[in-house]
Automatic annotation (TrEMBL):
EC number of this enzyme: 2.8.2.-
Protein name, entry field: Heparan-sulfate 6-O-sulfotransferase
Reactions catalysed: alpha-D-glucosaminyl-[heparan sulfate](n) + 3'-phosphoadenylyl sulfate = 6-sulfo-alpha-D-glucosaminyl-[heparan sulfate](n) + adenosine 3',5'-bisphosphate + H(+)
Compartments reported by the entry: Membrane
Class of the enzyme per the UniProt entry, highest EC level: transferase
Organism: Caenorhabditis briggsae
Any GO CC annotation of this UniProt entry: membrane
Transmembrane segments: 20-37
Gene3D superfamilies: P-loop containing nucleotide triphosphate hydrolases
First-listed, main subcellular location of the protein, grouped into a coarse class: membrane
Length: 364
């Protein structure tokens, strides 16, 4: 090469020239790798978004754009619209789901005593308008996340199978979030009492996570009942860490559960941006610390009314956990992604709540 020929001179000038050549070569190679990865990620994201568009995931987003930029949710109670709830552990999700099937007045579900699941079928077709724990059950896996429900198209497949044929539907995704430190402590207490969610599938890229993909923190034959806080927070594969961010992101963008075995800033950033985008595109999300506002948000968004107040039922039993200042600081640090997402969610929640209040005042 011409540059190397120029660098054949002896002495310090030759050394400096050769160093410059090596640096230029490395920079050129790094540029190629960067553009390749960036293009691949962009292509993957576009494919995922196209799939979600086909499933009607962004149906309400299009409706909002058609309304002059004002965010409007048009949920058709008599058509093919379905509310899907992404149930993140220890976020008041159980309370919300119970209210949907038992205390919601506009599309009442048929519930029987001593049975958890209710029939939420529409009168004409009996096809469900609600995809959740207490209507369809855990048909996509125990506490199925966004990747399992949307990216892997489980909701669409399950409802098509129940209907006996493929059908175009609009899906309105919903979820609840919670103060990350309180949520983490609540999960610790729940696991301490014997819960493990060991039967969760963690499907990503079309297959369940293996033990190699996702090592467990305990012996599945014994469980983790009675675990100490020190042991709970010392396991690097503990899914309680940043659970809200992970469950709302598209994990296929970060190699599924690769981020747990080989954490990196780049993967965290991709996962965070994915979770924020998916949260923005949800028809509704509630905040456990704002139950009254969350109830108003849902009722105004979907034109549905609850016969009771969720705030009475959504109180935590884990507020009596005594922790030191250093333990609290450590828990906050290991859940820093969830804290970033939660603070973003609060801001977005307040913006949308204000928009609903302004809309209500205009209609008076």
């Amino acid at each position: 090469m011409k540059l190397m020929g120029m660098c054949s001179m002896r002495g310090w000038k030759g050394v400096q020239c050769r160093k410059l050549f090596v640096f230029a070569t490395i920079l050129f190679a790094a540029s190629i790798v960067y553009f390749y990865i960036n293009f691949s990620m962009k292509t993957t994201t576009e494919v995922v978004n196209d799939n979600m568009l086909e499933e009607g995931y962004y149906a309400y987003e299009r409706a909002a754009q058609e309304s002059g930029g004002v965010r409007v949710i048009r949920f058709n109670k008599t058509s093919n619209d379905v509310i899907v709830f992404v149930h993140i552990q220890k976020t008041a999700g159980t309370t919300f789901e119970k209210f949907l099937v038992r205390y919601q007045q506009n599309l009442p579900c048929k519930c029987q005593a001593h049975k958890k699941r209710c029939n939420c079928g529409r009168n004409a077709s009996n096809e469900t308008w609600l995809f959740s724990r207490y209507s369809t059950g855990w048909v996509c896996g125990l506490h199925a996340d966004f990747t399992e429900l949307v990216v892997n198209s489980c909701v669409q497949r399950v409802l098509d199978k129940q209907a006996g044929h493929k059908k175009k539907r609009n899906y309105f995704y919903t979820t609840f979030l919670r103060n990350p430190t309180d949520r983490f402590i609540s999960e610790f207490r729940h696991v301490q009492r014997g819960a493990t969610w060991i039967s969760s599938k963690h499907v990503c890229n079309g297959r369940p996570a293996s033990v190699n993909d996702l090592p467990t923190c305990f012996d599945p034959r014994i469980g983790w009942e009675g675990v100490s806080l020190e042991e709970f927070i010392s396991c690097p594969y503990n899914l309680a860490f940043n659970r809200q961010t992970r469950m709302l992101s598209n994990l296929s963008l970060v190699g599924c559960y690769e981020h747990l075995r080989r954490p990196s800033y780049e993967q965290d950033k991709i996962m965070m941006e994915s979770a924020k985008e998916n949260l923005r595109n949800m028809a509704f999300f509630g905040i456990k610390e704002r139950m009254d506002d969350s109830q108003y948000f849902f009722e105004a968004t979907f034109d549905m009314k609850f016969s009771r107040k969720m705030s009475v039922w959504g109180k935590s039993k884990s507020n009596d956990t005594v922790l030191t200042a250093s333990q609290l600081a450590y828990i906050r640090n290991v859940n820093k992604l969830d804290w970033e997402l939660y603070e973003y969610a609060l801001q977005l929640f307040n913006e949308r709540l204000s928009q609903l209040h302004r809309k209500k005042r205009r209609l008076r």
